[in-house]
Predict the structure.
Amino acid sequence: MAKLEGIDILFVAGFGPVSHDHDASTKLYRETLGIPFKEENNYLHTDQLEGVKQFAIWPLSQAAQSCFGTTEWPGDLPVPQAWLEFDVADVDAATVALEAQGYKPLVAAREEPWGQT
């Protein structure tokens, strides 16, 4: 498999749907599938599923707030259906490599309040 120089993926750090309907998502994932979530401000997350470090249902309004500082997703960008995080050996090198291929990050690399870059 070809590998882009500068990107060394260590593991899948997180994955989950972006929720457009919190109640329906809660019913499916928590009640129907029985996933043991912790809940913080309508953000359902767990580190109790094998194969991924973190699985979470991210409300669209929170995704917009995190990326753009507003609860509304910009009309000129496709509305996300899911989120996926990879831990990489070097965030800056991975960013440079992806930008060199024409990809545009929604946000610049930054340290989150919980310490993740």
Remarks:
- The chain has a mean pLDDT of 90.
